[in-house]
Write a structure and sequence with these properties.
- The structure is a single chain.
- With about 290 residues, the protein is mainly alpha-helical.
- The protein has three domains: about 1-55, no CATH class; about 70-200, no CATH class; about 205-285, no CATH class.
- Helix content is about 40%, strand content about 10%.
- The protein has 14 helices and five strands.
- It has helices spanning about 1-10, 10-15, 20-25, 25-30, 35-40, 45-55, 60-65, 125-130, 190-200, 200-205, 210-220, 240-255, 260-270, 275-285, and strands at about 75-80, 135-140, 150, 160-165, 185.
- The strands form two sheets. The protein has a three-stranded parallel β-sheet, with no helix packed on it. A two-stranded parallel ribbon has the order 3-5.
- α11 crosses α13 (about 260-270), α12 (about 240-255) crosses α13 and α13 packs antiparallel against α14.
- The chain is globular, with a radius of gyration of 22 Å.
Length: about 290
């Protein structure tokens, strides 16, 4: 969000001269705004920005950041991205493929690297930096060129995490998620089929981060899903339903991986003393 705010600063002077109807006119925005697509969509993020400004401490930013939640990933993930992405710069996913120099179409002073923002250390890391190196495959490949044709994603099935980046050149001021706007759809069919053939016994695992997150939800203290007390216990979103859902998920995982569940419980109980009582209750109810 800080990147979008910074990028849209280059549009403010021109935006202030446009009428409300002109701001909704995409073609007009392309004609006059320095970074047009960001200028055209920025208003959609106003409610999120307002919430963050109400609670500006770093935990909000971290909770909204997939990178900061990487420790909670418990299933394989295939990321696909373009080096030319203006809306979500590649630097946020992996810093290996960010172009060294800015394209001349971008305004002077345009910031695109995470290191250019005054962020907490954890928020300056890319997704690739937060994933276990031994379980990560990163691949740079030529960008799709045929209009309307679906493009297949390559992957390494031996790795839990795959990052596939299409090299479409540098970020340009008039770009979006990529430059060539008439591309077909992403085709991840082969990846999905391969994972389904493995079954959940192989594809599901449990991390200490994910178990701690589940324990917070169980206690009704989840940061993103706090749980609603004093409402019908059969309603989804109530603390009671959150507890039931978590017990069901952990019970199913424990049937397949009892030792891993027990080990992870011990790890989190040692590291998170504030969750010890909650985890003890979960353990009792799971009959571990």
């Amino acid at each position: 969000m800080k990147y979008l705010q910074s990028a849209n600063e280059h549009n403010k002077e021109i935006l202030e001269t446009l009428t409300a109807d002109e701001r909704k006119d995409f073609i007009r925005c392309l004609e006059v705004i320095p970074v047009p697509i960001i200028g055209a969509i920025f208003g959609q993020f106003a409610p999120i920005l307002a919430k963050i400004q109400e609670n500006s401490h770093g935990e909000i930013w971290k909770a909204l950041s997939p990178t900061c939640m990487a420790r909670c990933f418990t299933a394989p993930v295939l990321f696909s991205h373009f080096t030319s992405d203006l809306l979500v710069p590649i630097d946020q996913l992996t810093k290996r493929f960010t172009y060294a120099e800015l394209d001349k179409s971008l305004p002077d002073g345009f910031r695109i690297r995470m290191s250019e923002f005054p962020l907490q250390e954890e928020l300056q890391r890319s997704m690739a930096e937060m994933l276990p190196a031994g379980d990560l495959f990163e691949h740079l490949c030529p960008h799709p060129q045929t209009s309307g044709e679906n493009f297949k994603l390559s992957f390494d099935l031996s790795k839990r995490f795959n990052i596939l980046v299409f090299d479409e050149g540098n970020v340009e001021a008039e770009g979006g998620h990529y430059k060539k706007m008439d591309l077909g759809s992403v085709d991840a069919t082969a990846y999905i089929q391969a994972q389904l053939q493995k079954s959940s016994r192989e594809t599901n695992w449990l991390t200490a981060g994910k178990l701690a997150l589940m324990a917070e939800r169980y206690a009704g203290k989840g940061f993103l899903i706090p749980g609603q007390a004093g409402i019908d216990d059969t309603v989804y979103g109530s603390v009671a339903m959150n507890c039931q859902e978590i017990l069901e998920e952990l019970s199913e995982f424990g049937e397949l991986h009892p030792e891993e569940l027990a080990d992870t419980l011990r790890t989190v109980m040692t590291a998170r003393l504030d969750l010890a009582d909650v985890l003890d209750e979960i353990q009792v109810r799971l009959l571990i």
